[in-house]
Amino acid sequence: MKTFENKVEEYAELVINVGINIQQGQTLVISASIAVADFVRRICRYAYLNGAHFVYIKWIDEELARIEYELMSEQGLGYTPDWLVKGYEEMASDGAAFLYIISPHLQNMEGIDPIKTEKAEYASAIAFRSFTEKLTSMQVSWTVIAYPTEKWAESIFPYMVPKEGLKQLWEEFFKIMKLDAENPIAAWEQHIEGLNKRAALLNDERFRYLHFISEGTDLKIELPNNHHWLNSLETNVNGTLFICNMPTEEIYTTPLKTGVNGMVKNTKPLVYEGHVIDDFTLTFKYGKIVDCSAKKGLDALKGILNKDEGAKYIGEVALVPHDSVISASNLLFYHTLFDENASCHLAIGHGYISGLKEGNRVDHESNINSSIIHVDFMIGSEYLQVNGVREDGTVEPILIDGKWAAKFLD
């Protein structure tokens, strides 16, 4: 039987070999909390064992971040050093891979003025826009993963003793990440193969638009003629495969910027820059969000929508069955990486050109959205019906009561 240490060790190996898929002589850039330093050391070890040339680590200290938001001047909050931006752009140009290890620390932003976090996030997004474009256009390899901590467990299991909550979180985490499998790497390869097959089935249909129907939701999303369904398995400009998000359960594509009409209601809270936004609705007309409401976090929601003009449109539509392994846990993880893979979701902001057919992307800027942000929010549930509508008007059920219709089962 595997021990806890065995599983954590296999996790580090999985991330390097399957997730980021490090290549001989490649630089690896890691962004991680100081709370997970031991795991970062494991990651570095596997990176070097598998040929990494150099590993650069950008440490994040959540407690220090709070001090900065509390005490830093307005000028300081809006400052991003040029040398830092240039360093990341240079590493990306040299073919580095980028690994982001998140450890949600929701309580850390309680009481912080959303305007402060919005100002800092906006300044950073503008400064790193060129670098971010390299990521979103899949020019370089990048992977986002998570690592359980007591602080994260406290958000998910608030009524449990912290150590017991962390133990429970690890148990769920190991299931979701397939680390309970005898061979996690083989299990992930099989999982990705299944996602590939389902994406291929959707691509064969060439739907003109999707119709989402549920309580509080009646939304039609038009798709570009050259849309392409895919999953988190991507290929960079050098032909290297990598997985953007681990875990991943989604099949997604890029919608037509001006082709979204109707109303949508969230089904899980959106956590953005430490602020919780919940029980909200968005109303669309010709792609643009023309009205919004929220019972919790309305100011934070408006802050997202006012980032730039593109923040009033969506850039992604993703299908996730309600019976996914994450949804089956019946847990709210308070982080998009997990919650979006328990639910169908949309993304406010930037659209990925990878959601368009290869070789047919010349006019993509007029068809899909561009923004400095890409914020996923969840709309799926056991009551959601998603229909695909073809050019001739015929309708094909895709999800029924939140689950894949028989035609789209692999």
TrEMBL record:
Record GO terms (molecular function): aminopeptidase activity
Pfam families per record: Peptidase_M29
Taxonomy, superkingdom: Bacteria
InterPro entries: M29_Exopeptidase, M29_N-terminal, Peptidase_M29
Keyword tRNA processing attributed: no
Co-factor(s): Co(2+); Zn(2+); Mg(2+)
Keywords attached to this entry: Aminopeptidase, Hydrolase, Metal-binding, Metalloprotease, Protease
Keyword Protease: yes
SUPFAM superfamilies reported in the protein's UniProt record: Thermophilic metalloprotease-like (SSF144052)
Family: Belongs to the peptidase M29 family.
Protein name stated in the entry: Aminopeptidase
Lineage: Bacteria, Bacillati, Bacillota, Bacilli, Bacillales
